[in-house]
Specification:
The complex is a heterodimer. By secondary structure, chain A is mostly helical. In chain A, 71% of the residues lie in helices and 0% in strands. Chain A has helices at residues 7-18, 24-32, 39-66, 71-75, 87-96, 106-137, 143-152, 162-171, 178-186, 189-201, 204-213, 217-228, 230-245, 249-254, 263-271, 281-312. In chain A, helix 3 packs across helix 16, helix 6 crosses helix 10 (189-201) and helix 15 packs antiparallel against helix 16 (281-312). In chain B, 24% of the residues lie in helices and 33% in strands. Chain B is built from eight helices and 20 strands. Chain B has helices at 42-50, 92-102, 107-120, 136-149, 166-183, 194-200, 218-223, 228-233, and strands spanning 4-13, 16-26, 31-35, 57-62, 65-66, 77-80, 154-158, 186-191, 203-208, 211-216, 240-246, 251-254, 259-261, 272-277, 283-284, 292-301, 305-312, 315-322, 332-336, 343-346. Chain B is elongated and about 75 Å long. At the A-B interface, helix 11 and helix 12 of A face strand 6 and helix 2 of B.
């Protein structure tokens, strides 16, 4: 069918052209008149892109393959590049028994990771929302001072203040607990700053209209500010969930009992330690694949929600 | 419904006083327009009535209650903002119902009030839409609906039509007028647009630099301006001002040539005055009968009439001529006016000389 003839198609042409979605036949026709008609360049661009994808995707693929074969096959050189038949066995074993030195089953570590990542993400959003609201909408002594204090903490990530923070957490008896795992990571200057910037774009008249409508500050916060912040909250949730999930150093220091291990330290525990036991690479790889899934799921699921939010809210 | 009293109302930001004591009495059911150039304090005055700005000195009373210390929600007022200030995430219905819900009104009563307001403003089919799905005019109507459902004692409008295009503005002006006729609620309306002020107001407060220069009905203000500022601000194109000196009974000698005869007031010989004549009151005349002459600098054809811009020495004057009577650029035009239409202002203070 000649795509260029239907009137409906024609009406959509400018739109399609803008997004580089013109049907091929038309593109070819259009291209003839253009200065830049270099098939070689096209090939080159694609080669670069394919190399880029391969660099990222190939190790993941190898990991996946390694998680579907036996330990001997993993160690054999060369390692096979076709998935083997032990997918279900390996994953079941990793999930239920664990691997290597770490006796904790992976499902338990996944739960720990999930709980801490959720607490960190939600906690960060809640705290930042409240502090940004206070800083933008209330006038209190030393308001700017506090704002800058929060801002300055950007320069002090957990890694820098790890000893004093450890001391405090340990003195408070929060080692080996979800509180110890998450609380020190919750305070967030980035999120506070982001919400502050967003609140500053909400017109003052909205707050005034709410005041005249009889809404007190917290009512305004709950009924107007929070619904309007949904998209920022979604974006932050994605970022902070992954941040929380990927935490390595802090959980490593603050947990000593296996039932509080997160999956990221779990993987590390599996490959170091007792020299005697051969490392069960197929199980380590299965764990690695499983550890990648929740952040990926959050990105994919929240992306849809995020776009929906963008369409729904508008000032 | 209620009256609103301003008693020596002042507002300062630190040491900077922006409103220098406004006294006014707004009668029950009256439509008052506060008009003035930007920065004159008109919005501040309105926001003081709303309770969004504190009152530095003086008193504002709504009904018989002094509201200085009351929260906005307790003042029984409703406000319409220039940028509408609709809650973007709520439907039209919820936007109007929000204030009532906070006040704990029953669902049935809320529903009844919202539907009634929706009916008055012809918002019926739009009630489930979100603000972003509405046009500017519709949003403005929702903002008014939000004010109406509250059934307040006083409506406050803060430049509500400034964000609309010219045609819509005329239409909304008409709707606001109709609304006020239907509801009869006391209204304070802030605008910088003197056409809105003239057409909507029962009485207007003309403000300049934090002072209420004149309070009166639109035609009073137009025909009997109290100061040179008011005379220049109300009327379009604005009044012509020509420098001159008193020259005997009923006469002023213009600085750049010409004698203006006046019927109202008196000026001692030699006193510096400013003569004000509206463009619509100037007519072409024979050189012998003319008050002054000027060189035509520009001609603006507006269709119904023509504006002829004259250069008269360092002063300028605009003559509004009916359709068909035009002038050529460069020619000398002799003009005159009815002596009763000539206004005199003190050159230094700008006060009207009567």
């Amino acid at each position: 069918m000649d795509v260029s003839t239907t009137p409906e198609r024609k009406a959509r042409l400018p739109f399609l052209a803008r997004y580089n979605m013109l049907p091929r036949t038309i593109l070819r026709g259009r291209r003839e008149g253009m200065v830049e008609n270099r098939p070689l360049l096209d090939v080159l661009t694609h080669i670069v892109l394919i190399i880029g994808v391969a660099v990222i995707a190939f190790p993941v693929y190898v990991t996946f393959v390694a998680s579907t074969i036996t330990a001997e096959q993993v160690l054999a050189a060369p390692m096979p590049l076709v998935p083997g038949p032990h997918l279900i066995d390996n994953y079941r074993e990793a999930l239920l028994r664990g691997a290597g030195n770490s006796a904790a089953p992976v499902w338990m570590m996944m739960v720990n990771s999930l709980v801490s990542a959720l607490i960190i993400a939600i906690g960060k959003i809640a705290i930042s929302l409240i502090s940004a609201f206070a800083i933008v909408y209330f006038r209190f002594p030393l308001r700017n001072f506090f704002f800058w204090m929060i801002f300055v903490t950007l320069m002090l990530p957990v890694e820098v203040r790890i000893l004093p923070t450890y001391k405090i957490v340990s003195d408070l008896g929060m080692l080996d607990s979800y509180a110890g795992l998450t609380l020190p990571l919750i305070a967030s200057a980035t999120a506070t700053f982001l919400f502050r910037q967003f609140f500053l774009t909400i017109p003052d008249e909205l707050a005034e209209a709410a005041r005249i409508d009889g809404a007190g500050p917290m009512r305004f916060f709950w009924d107007v500010v929070i619904p309007m912040s949904k998209t920022s909250m979604a974006a932050l949730f994605v970022i902070q969930f992954i941040y929380g999930w990927n935490q390595y150093l802090w959980p490593l220091i603050v947990t000593t009992q296996e039932n509080y291990y997160t999956v990221v330290i779990g993987i590390k525990r599996m490959i170091v330690g007792g020299g005697d036991a051969a490392i069960e690479w197929q199980l380590v790889m299965a764990t690695a694949i499983m550890a990648m899934l929740p952040p990926a799921a959050v990105v994919i699921l929240m992306q849809r929600w995020f776009v929906k939010g963008l369409v729904d809210t508008e000032k | 419904m209620a009256k609103v009293d301003f008693h020596n109302v002042r507002k300062s930001y630190g040491s900077l006083e922006v409103i220098h004591g406004v006294d006014a009495r707004v009668a029950d059911g009256e439509f008052i327009v506060i008009v003035g150039p930007s920065g004159c304090g008109k919005s501040t005055l309105l926001r003081m009535v709303a309770g969004l700005e504190s009152i530095t000195a003086g008193e504002i009373a709504i009904g018989d209650r002094i509201v200085n210390e009351l929260e906005p929600k307790d003042r029984d007022i409703a406000m319409v903002f220039q940028n509408y200030a609709l809650y973007p995430h709520m439907s039209v219905y919820d936007n109007m119902a929000y204030g009532l819900r906070i006040r704990g009104m029953s669902k049935e009563e809320i529903d009844q009030r919202v539907r009634k307001a929706g009916g008055i403003l012809e918002l019926g089919p739009l009630l489930q839409r979100k603000p972003r799905q509405l046009s500017g005019g519709q949003r403005q109507r929702v903002a008014m609906g939000r004010a109406i459902v509250r059934e307040p004692k006083v409506f406050l409008f803060d430049e509500p039509l400034s964000n609309l295009d010219a045609k819509l503005r005329v239409q909304m002006r008409f709707e606001i007028q109709k609304l006020h006729r239907t509801l009869g609620t006391t209204s304070l309306y802030v605008t910088h647009d003197q056409v809105e002020a003239m057409t909507l107001a029962h009485r207007m407060i003309v403000m300049n630099a934090g002072v209420a220069e004149q309070i009166g009905s639109p035609m009073d203000v137009y025909e009997d301006p109290a100061t040179r500022f008011v005379a220049g601000f109300i009327g379009s194109p604005s009044m012509n001002f020509l420098a001159g000196k008193g020259a005997g009974a009923g006469k002023v000698a213009l600085e750049h040539g010409g004698i203006v005869r006046y019927a109202n007031g008196q000026v001692e010989t030699g006193r510096d005055v400013v003569v004000g004549i509206r463009p619509e009151h100037l007519t072409a005349a024979d050189p012998a009968d003319a008050m002054f002459a000027g060189t035509v600098e520009m001609v603006e054809q507006l269709g119904a009439d023509t504006l002829v811009h004259l250069a008269h020495g360092a002063d300028n004057a605009i003559v509004r001529r009916p359709q068909g009577q035009t002038a050529a650029v460069g020619e000398t035009l002799h003009v005159t006016a009815e002596p009763s239409r000539v206004y005199l202002f003190d050159a230094a203070s700008g006060l009207r000389l009567r």
